[in-house]
Write a structure and sequence with these properties.
The complex is a heterodimer of chains A (443) and B (327).
Chain A lengths: L22 E3 L5 E5 L9 E2 L6 E2 L4 E4 L8 E2 L4 E10 L5 E9 L22 H10 L12 H4 L10 E6 L8 H8 L1 H15 L4 E6 L3 H10 L6 E6 L8 H9 L14 E5 H13 L5 E7 L7 E6 L4 H7 L7 E6 L6 E3 L12 E6 H4 L12 H5 L6 H9 L3 H6 L10 H5 L6 H20 L1
Parallel strand pairs in A: 1-14, 9-10, 9-12, 10-11, 13-17
Antiparallel strand pairs in A: 2-8, 3-5, 4-7, 5-6, 7-8, 13-14, 15-16, 15-17
Helix pairs in contact in A: 1-4, 3-5, 4-7, 11-14
Chain B lengths: L18 H23 L1 H25 L10 H11 L7 H16 L12 H12 L1 H4 L2 E2 L10 E2 L2 H10 L4 H4 L6 H6 L11 H13 L6 H20 L7 H6 L3 H8 L10 H21 L6 H18 L10
Antiparallel strand pairs in B: 1-2
Helix pairs in contact in B: 1-2, 1-3, 1-10, 2-3, 2-4, 3-4, 3-5, 4-5, 5-15, 10-13, 11-13, 11-14, 14-15
The chains are: A alpha/beta (443), B mainly alpha (327).
The complex binds iron/sulfur cluster (2 copies).
């Protein structure tokens, strides 16, 4: 029996069209827009101004606090302006526009592909390097990695869990990375283990990526400290709490962080970025992005410089299909619909999903038939139908009592509701409101 | 960009299941039992079913159109399903005008007066049925002889009624057995009774289909039938002269119809499996109590309605197990 998490879960159609497409380097764009807030936490502070010459890998914005991350130039060229522009969130964000000239890298960055296995085992030095390289969680949450590597006093990491689940339908970026960069990935994992001073790491991978499981098992055959854990396919297994439960059987208490059960979770993309930062001095300036969709001519996986406009990726995948109705940054379950293809790829962009008109529109919502399916599928054991009703009626104390803050916004409830009710829309609203109330109480 | 893109919050994909599909699948699951009913009771069975379905849909349309003034939703299949279930719960000989009254009560009172599909606390078909049983006790308990029997009699008694009458007259169960159909007859449906309740086997076939299509889960039917079996079995062990063996009760009097198709009505049953267990336990116990000690030979309709009434309470107190909650 394959391991998985116990409570709830759904099985959306996988549609991993690009699973067999090797990662291709995308051609350099003519210009990039690099937002200074690509992570959770304080925005970075801009260090350059109009007219400055920058090189690839040069720091252009400095972390704005402990929970923040440095931003580096992903290209070489001239800073055109520092201004507001819309990113994938749909809001105007501060960022740096750079016109690309050539491809000149900052000194000290190693650009060859040679595998470097040996690393300096000074944990503090590793964390400093990761911090300097501006690495954040590449799974989509974009939490600064150096923060995760420094557990608060009183808590101790016992294990590292690497998230290779990629439970979002359509996306294949992590899958390809595990297949093509397995050795680098494992070095990255060892570096992370060293920084955390743990002697056990697990890589959780869903069983629809058998080739990746086999290849990593092969590479770790002689290393018992890293264990590959094949998992039964079930959404949202990539959720931190669900993954920890699936791999270790431990349950992170409501309101607590993974470290409460001794676990630190990191995405495979992040581990690879750690390898590049520590072994090659290369800051986080590019990532793998899946471009896919039912009508996309050439579903692909691209290695893309941060700041590249989404439209360049779509062009490279065969152009925008005529029947396009919606473009999503991320996967279909948790991704964000974007209003324009001018928005840039950022550190958290795992995929660009193009949906045809016919799938883009929501169906009209009907009365709740009280079928209880939303309750059955909720991985957090909540009652989505009830949370929607109390949010609609603004009964915030009820919402809080019924654990609305535990919702991980996975969308399983809305996905499964036969009456097409917009459950998560209302729950998000309720969460925002209840969160405000809780914060104001603490003051 | 020339094209207008849709912007909506996640999730961006949706299951292919819908309310309509659920309703039509339940209807499909009931078709084998309906065919059997027509085979046993002839065109009369067809008349009752068609009339009940048409009347339920018509009342839903008229009330939504002219009284509550909303967009009529008769195509969602729920009114048709109520019609079939109502028909399944009455004798095949029931006069047409009584059926129409039953449909009006089921749809008008049982469903739309509460705000329509999803808001009704009681199963509409059962509301209609129980209303008819109380208002027209004679017509509702005159069971037609099936068309394959050569006899002058026009009506007959149901196995449960034969049993109840005999025990009331002081006969031990063992003496009554030869008046009752064999378990095999009961299983495939050679007995008298309400239109849809007679063939346990075909009702179970529909159950299997619904499980396969994930329309319902096994919990409620299995818990109800299990409770009836255990409770009646216990009584039987204590006094086999007064209490018949439990299998008989599973195969008669609409236990299957009630447990599989009426108690599982999503709108009126609890949300969590734990809640469903309590609900099913209540239905099983009350059914056995009414059948053995009550005035009516059959009691599952009442039992379901009573527990429908408790469902909001069960939902309010039986919460799902929270992830990371206190043990
Ligand atoms: S979005 Fe929230 S409420 Fe809905 S299933 Fe996921 S965790 Fe549960
Ligand atoms: S899944 Fe939809 S219809 Fe079913 S109980 Fe939840 S909200 Fe109601």
């Amino acid at each position: 029996m394959l391991k998985t998490f116990k409570l709830g879960g759904v099985h959306p159609a996988e549609n991993k069209f690009s699973a067999n497409k090797a990662i291709e380097k995308l051609a350099l764009p003519k210009s990039v827009f690099i937002p200074v807030a690509q992570h959770i936490g304080a925005p970075a502070q801009t260090l350059v101004k109009k007219g400055d010459q920058v090189k690839v890998g040069q720091i252009i914005a400095k972390a704005g606090g402990f929970v923040s991350a440095n931003i580096h130039s992903s290209v070489s060229g001239t800073v055109k302006k520092v201004d507001l522009a819309t990113d994938a969130s749909g809001y105007p964000k501060q960022g740096i526009f750079i016109d690309v000239e050539g491809d000149e890298w900052e000194e000290g960055i190693i650009t060859d592909d040679k595998l470097v296995e040996k690393f300096d085992t000074d944990g503090k030095a590793i964390i400093d390097k990761i911090n300097a390289a501006g690495i954040v969680g590449l799974g989509g949450a974009t939490f600064p990695t150096h923060v995760k590597l420094m557990p608060p006093p009183g808590s101790k990491a016992e294990m590292l869990i690497i998230n290779g689940v990629e439970c979002e339908p359509y996306l294949t970026a992590d899958h390809r990375l595990m297949l093509e960069k397995g050795s680098e990935l494992l070095v990255g994992i060892r570096i992370l283990m060293c920084a955390l001073s743990v002697d056990k790491a697990y890589i959780g991978i869903e069983n629809n990526k058998k080739d990746a499981i086999a290849s990593l098992q092969n590479l770790t055959a002689s290393d018992s400290s890293i264990e590959i854990v094949p998992l039964k396919v079930k959404y949202p297994q990539g959720g931190e709490k669900q993954l920890i439960k699936a791999v270790t059987g431990r349950e992170v208490p409501s309101g607590a962080l993974p470290i409460a059960v001794g676990a630190v979770v990191s995405n495979v993309g992040t581990a690879y970025a750690v390898y590049e930062a520590v072994q090659k001095n290369k800051p986080l300036i590019e990532r793998v992005v899946t471009v896919t969709g039912r009508s996309v001519k050439n579903p692909s996986n691209f290695m893309v410089r941060v700041g590249t406009p989404v439209k360049e990726l779509i062009e490279a995948a065969g152009g925008l299909p005529d029947d396009t109705g919606k473009i999503i940054s991320g996967g279909p379950m948790m991704g964000k619909a974007i209003a324009s293809t001018d928005v840039p790829v950022t550190k958290g962009t795992s995929g660009i999903l193009i949906m045809p008109d016919t799938d883009a529109k929501r169906k009209t919502s009907q009365n709740c038939i009280r079928c209880g399916r939303c309750v059955t599928v909720c991985p957090m054991g909540l009652e989505p139908f009830l949370l929607m009703t109390v949010s609609e009626k603004q009964i915030w104390d009820r919402a809080e009592k019924d654990c609305i803050m535990d919702c991980i916004e996975c969308g399983s409830c809305s996905f499964t509701c036969p009456a097409d009710r917009p459950l998560l829309d209302y729950i998000r609203l309720g969460k925002g409101k209840v969160g405000q109330i809780i914060r104001s109480r603490k003051k | 960009m020339s094209k207008l893109l849709t912007i909506s919050p996640s999730p961006h994909v949706h299951t292919s299941d819908s309310v309509n599909k659920i309703m039509y699948r339940v209807i499909l699951a009931l078709v084998p039992a309906l065919v059997w009913s027509v085979f046993m009771f002839g065109v009369e069975a067809m008349r009752v079913t068609l009339l009940a379905v048409i009347a339920c849909m018509a009342f839903e349309y008229l009330i939504q159109r002219f009284i509550t003034k909303e967009e009529p939703k008769i195509t969602d299949g729920s009114a048709a399903l109520t019609g079939i279930l109502l028909a399944f719960n009455v004798p095949a000989s029931l006069p047409s005008w009584i059926i129409i009254i039953g449909a009006l009560i089921a749809i008008g009172v049982g469903k739309l007066s509460f705000g329509g599909l999803g808001n009704n606390p009681f199963n509409p078909a059962l509301v209609g049925r129980v209303f008819l049983l109380i208002s027209f006790p004679v017509q509702m308990t005159s069971w037609p002889v099936n068309i394959h029997v050569q006899t002058d009699a026009v009506t007959t008694a149901t196995p449960l009624a034969i049993l109840k009458e005999g025990i009331k007259n002081g006969q031990p169960v063992s003496d009554l057995m030869h008046n009752l159909p064999s378990s095999l007859d009961l299983l495939y449906g050679n007995m008298s009774g309400s239109m849809g309740e007679i063939s346990a086997a075909l009702l179970l076939l529909g159950f299997a289909y619904m499980l396969w299509k994930k329309v319902i889960t096994w919990h409620i039917p299995v818990f109800i039938l299990g409770t009836i079996f255990v409770f009646q079995g216990g009584l039987h062990l204590i006094n086999p002269d007064k209490f018949i063996e439990p299998l008989f009760h599973l195969l008669t009097g609409g236990a299957m119809l009630g447990a599989i198709y009426m108690a599982t009505d999503m709108v009126t049953s609890p949300m969590t499996h734990k809640g469903q267990f309590i609900y099913a336990l209540g239905i099983g116990i009350i059914t056995v109590l009414i059948r053995n000690f009550g005035a009516y030979p059959e009691g599952i309709s009442f039992a379901i309605l009573i527990l429908n009434g408790f469902t909001p309470l069960i939902n309010a107190y039986v919460k799902p197990k929270r992830f990371g909650g206190k043990k």
